[in-house]
């Protein structure tokens, strides 16, 4: 027998059971027999709940509201209620593949009457698993080691972080070169700096910023991953190391606000950097561009004959409450027909990349009927849209891969909002920069 | 009992390497260092052995980079009990493998381990001389290209790789020296919070040593390899690509 399984006390059936004068003897009478929760061992639930941050794991009262909204359950067998139940029946979350499948999308927390918070439980449990010497999935290990050494999960040279700038075709000032205060410090992040499709969006955004006359600059090679997804994957120490270094770097320069490409960076700067002494006024680029719409609108001159739908990034929407800015931008695009997916806004589906999922793709795929990203592109196609619009750097590559693997590649294009805006402004062609 | 792991930092080739203006060294201001990957496997194998036997793992390294602490703290965080750093006047030089072996031998003798593990090779020791040289100087048996080991009844059983996928199992009397190609399992992950905790709580023992004379190689020139060939990506329909491949093979007299 699997040594991680514990034998639970026997469930009793009564030979005869008389309830309120009625004889209900029979094998089904166990429903009426004494069957308190302690028929099962609470040990494995307690082992998780005693971890700082993971206390709410024990609060679950098994109502099951979380399961139908869990994006992982849609393609597999998951949800906080199920994890709790498995722990009750002897399956140790710390040794189970379940530990790595939650994307911390927070849709369960939205509906949970008991506020069981997987966004805090998961990193705590994962950190505990690492600290107690349990093996972690190899692909995640590689991403974490890369981040520790190079400051990005892709394992790219730190010095090449600003290399995309030379292809931007517009000035992209770098703070260590210009040595002057700026209004907006643009936190580009890893995938927009290194991934070819991320770079496409960065170039589009750089051109939009220039067209708007925004006073901005980037950190270039001095920027390191903001670290939020590594934190959620269980690497709090790595997150703190990155945050401390980034806070030191930011302290060298004068700027008024930070604009981020990546909702995960937004989340880190808003919620976790302040605890380490980094207080900034941080905006997602869609929020900034929506504010600039009066200036932007007249520049959107080219009609785009696309039927588009939009994927809300978990860390922009549910985690940080921004649902409207991306939609305002999409609706400002001339010629574009906008349709919503059934799962949108607060109930948006998850691309599967959050909470470390970006670096657990093969691992997760081995435990799911299909990838979350694949489920999502099929939903996008079902709306009749020809374009899936995104505004999180994890998504372009995830959804493009999913479109290929589900065979809808020719029917659905995945584009960052910045790419569509830049195209409508005549700043880039239809395909990319 | 003790198992010693010898660890070395090497230039990270993910970052582009630049030659210093002198033309005889790397531009050390631009170089970043990482643990030699085979030494990482040697550490993992040593930890696996020690977990089974109760031995104490001691990580030992020569600090030629000035940054060896990071490597040694990580080794401590992974499970090594002690870490010893040899420092001296050789920071910024490249020690020959023989010089490194001579510096390491007195420390190994002092520790009196029953096994010494190190990586089978390193970018500055492509011939894999460190393990055999240590063994020769210590007068101990040695095996290299090791891909697994086990301590059984006072000997070490070692699996080593030969050629063509053939492996050989050897039994060595202890003490012995192993050059490790790959640990039985991938090197473990240690979370940064554990490394940082170790950095606060543990300490690295430092030994001042003198570099042996005449064993530092004199570099006359260092240069980036010249581009030797080129690749052509064939495009078009499968039929067009097939035609082009046939044409290329014919042109070279291969068809």
Characterization of the model:
The complex is a heterodimer of chains A (433) and B (255). By secondary structure, chain A is of the alpha/beta class. Chain A folds into three domains: 40-131, no CATH class; 142-291, no CATH class; 298-424, Rossmann fold, CATH 3.40.50. Chain A contains 20 helices and ten strands. Chain A has helices at residues 43-49, 66-69, 71-75, 80-88, 107-111, 118-131, 138-150, 175-178, 190-194, 196-211, 228-232, 236-250, 263-272, 285-291, 293-296, 324-332, 361-365, 372-382, 393-405, 417-424, and strands spanning 18-19, 22-23, 182-187, 216-218, 255-260, 282-284, 307-310, 337-338, 387-390, 413-416. Chain A has a four-stranded parallel beta sheet with strand order 4-3-5-6. In chain A, strands 8-7-9-10 form a four-stranded parallel beta sheet, sandwiched between helices. In chain A, helix 19 (393-405) links the parallel strand 9 and strand 10. In chain A, helix 10 packs across helix 20 and helix 14 crosses helix 16 (324-332). Chain A is globular, with a radius of gyration of 24 Å. The model of chain A has no long low-confidence stretch (mean pLDDT 93). By secondary structure, chain B is of the alpha/beta class. Chain B has a single domain, classed as Rossmann fold (3-Layer(aba) Sandwich). In chain B, 30% of the residues lie in helices and 25% in strands. Chain B has helices at 37-53, 68-78, 97-111, 130-138, 192-201, 238-251, and strands spanning 2-7, 9-11, 33-35, 56-62, 82-87, 115-119, 142-152, 155-161, 167-173, 176-180, 205-208. In chain B, helix 2 (68-78) crosses helix 5. The termini of chain B are far apart. The A-B interface holds A 127, 130-131, 133, 135-136, 138, 141, 144-145, 148-150, 155-159, 234-238, 240-241 and B 12, 14-16, 34, 186, 188-196.
């Amino acid at each position: 027998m699997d040594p991680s399984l514990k034998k639970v006390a026997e469930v009793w059936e009564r030979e005869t059971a008389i309830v309120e004068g009625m004889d209900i003897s029979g094998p089904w009478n166990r429903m009426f027999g004494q069957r308190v929760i302690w028929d099962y061992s609470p040990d494995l639930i307690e082992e998780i709940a005693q971890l700082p941050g993971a206390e709410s794991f024990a609060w679950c009262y098994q109502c099951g509201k979380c399961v139908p909204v869990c994006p992982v359950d849609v393609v597999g067998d998951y949800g906080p209620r199920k994890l709790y139940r498995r722990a009750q029946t002897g399956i140790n979350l710390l040794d189970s593949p379940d530990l790595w499948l939650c994307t911390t999308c927070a849709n369960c927390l939205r509906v949970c009457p008991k506020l069981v918070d997987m966004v805090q439980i998961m990193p705590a449990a994962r950190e505990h698993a690492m600290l107690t010497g349990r093996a972690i999935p190899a692909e995640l290990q590689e991403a974490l080691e890369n981040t520790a050494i190079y400051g990005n999960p892709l394992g790219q040279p730190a010095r090449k972080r600003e290399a995309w700038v030379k292809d931007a075709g517009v000035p992209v000032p770098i703070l260590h070169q210009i040595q002057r205060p700026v209004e907006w410090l643009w936190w580009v992040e890893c995938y927009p700096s290194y991934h070819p499709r991320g770079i496409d969006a960065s170039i589009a955004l750089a051109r939009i910023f220039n067209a708007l006359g925004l006073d901005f600059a980037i950190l270039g090679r001095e920027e390191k991953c903001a670290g939020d997804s590594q934190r959620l994957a269980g690497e709090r120490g790595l997150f703190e190391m990155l945050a401390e270094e980034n806070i030191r770097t930011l302290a060298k320069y004068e700027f008024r606000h930070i604009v981020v490409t990546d909702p995960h960076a937004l989340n880190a700067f808003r919620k976790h950097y302040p605890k380490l002494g980094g207080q900034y006024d941080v905006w997602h680029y869609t929020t900034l561009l929506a504010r600039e719409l009066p200036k932007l609108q007249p520049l959107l001159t080219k009609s785009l004959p696309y039927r588009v739908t939009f994927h809300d990034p978990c860390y922009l929407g549910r985690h940080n409450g921004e649902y409207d800015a991306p939609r305002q931008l999409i609706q400002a695009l001339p010629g574009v027909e906008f349709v919503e997916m059934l799962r949108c806004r607060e109930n948006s589906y998850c691309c599967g990349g959050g909470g470390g999922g970006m670096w657990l793709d093969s691992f997760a795929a081995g435990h799911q009927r299909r990838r979350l990203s694949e489920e999502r592109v099929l939903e996008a196609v079902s709306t009749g849209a020809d374009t899936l619009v995104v505004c999180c750097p994890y998504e372009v590559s995830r959804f493009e891969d999913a479109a290929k693997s589900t065979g809808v590649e020719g029917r659905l294009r995945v584009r960052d909002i910045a790419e569509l805006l830049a195209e409508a402004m005549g700043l880039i062609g239809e395909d990319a920069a | 009992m003790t198992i010693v792991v010898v660890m070395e930092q090497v230039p990270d080739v993910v970052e582009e390497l630049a030659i210093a203006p002198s033309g005889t060294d790397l531009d050390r201001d631009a170089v970043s260092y990482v643990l030699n990957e085979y030494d990482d496997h040697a550490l993992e194998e040593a930890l696996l052995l020690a977990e089974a036997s109760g031995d104490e793992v001691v990580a030992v390294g020569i600090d030629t980079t000035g940054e060896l602490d990071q490597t040694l703290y990580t080794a401590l965080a992974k499970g090594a009990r002690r870490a010893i750093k040899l420092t001296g006047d050789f920071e910024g030089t490249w020690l020959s493998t023989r010089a490194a072996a001579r510096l390491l031998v007195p420390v190994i003798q002092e520790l009196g381990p029953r096994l010494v593990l190190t990586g089978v090779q390193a970018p500055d020791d492509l011939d894999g001389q460190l393990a055999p040289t240590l063994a020769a100087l210590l007068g101990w048996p040695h095996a290299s290209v090791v891909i697994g080991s086990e301590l059984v009844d006072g000997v070490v059983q070692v699996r080593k790789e030969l050629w063509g996928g053939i492996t050989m199992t050897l039994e060595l009397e202890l003490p012995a020296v192993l050059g490790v190609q790959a640990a039985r399992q991938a090197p473990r992950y240690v979370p940064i919070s554990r490394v940082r905790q170790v950095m606060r709580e543990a300490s690295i023992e430092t030994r001042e040593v003198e570099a042996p004379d005449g064993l530092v190689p004199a570099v006359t020139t260092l240069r980036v390899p010249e581009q030797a060939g080129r690749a052509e990506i064939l495009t078009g329909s499968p039929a067009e690509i097939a035609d082009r491949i046939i044409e290329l093979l014919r042109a070279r007299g291969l068809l």
